[in-house]
Amino acid sequence: MGSECPVPLGLTAFKPATRSPSRLAGFFWGRPIVTDACRYCGSLAQYGDSRIDVPCCRECYSLLLDRAWLGTFAERRDFVRCVLANRYARILHAPRWTAAEIDELEGNLKKQVIELQQLRDVIENRLDWQGESVQDEAR
Fold first, then answer.
1. Which DSSP helix (H) or strand (E) runs through 27?
2. How far is C-alpha 87 from the geometric centre of its chain's CA atoms?
3. 6-34 pLDDT, tens per residue?
4. Which of 1, 22, 25, 28 has the most CB atoms at less than 10 Å from its CB?
5. Long-range contacts of range 134-139, CB-CB < 8 Å, 24 or more positions apart?
6. pLDDT band at 129 (very low <50, low <70, confident <90, very high)
């Protein structure tokens, strides 16, 4: 991201819902759920960003829902990346463990370290997503 982040550091604008997404199976506000990759982060798309007609995941959809002032795809993508980087900063800045160090661990600690490493990989992939470009025209 070449420009300054529009979200203050440390801000977490979204807390994940505790409800099961199965309650939304099939349709969301009358629109069919999309089963493509999210154009903003590469996760499984469950919704469509109605502002610029692209598939997006639940988290990106929630972040962009009331952000009409973000008109272009590039602005929306940069906003999502900035918020995700701030939201997951603690995980992204956690120390990396080598395979040898993980092998020395046992029990729940080993399991938690492995899960943290996998989660970090997923988050880094989402932040590095280079999906298809979208026309920068807002409706």
1. strand 27-28
2. 9
3. 554 444 444 444 444 444 444 444 455 44
4. 28
5. 134/39, 134/52, 134/54, 134/73, 135/52, 135/73, 136/72, 136/73, 136/74, 137/52, 137/72, 138/51, 138/52, 138/71, 138/72, 139/51, 139/52
6. confident
Q: pLDDT tens-digit profile of 73-111?
A: 888 999 999 999 999 999 999 999 999 999 999 999 999
Instruction: Please answer whether residues 96 and 139 qualify as being in contact, where contact means their C-beta atoms are separated by less than 8 angstroms.
Output: no
Q: Residue 134 has which token pair?
A: 């979208």
pLDDT in tens, 27-68: 444 455 445 789 899 898 888 887 888 888 999 999 988 887
Q: Coil, helix or strand for 47?
A: strand
Q: Encoding tokens for residue 103?
A: 């092998």
The domain limits of the chain are: 21-127
pTM above 0.85, yes or no: no
Structure tokens at 122: 């997923």
Amino acid letter, 112: Q
List beta partners, residue 28.
Answer: 31
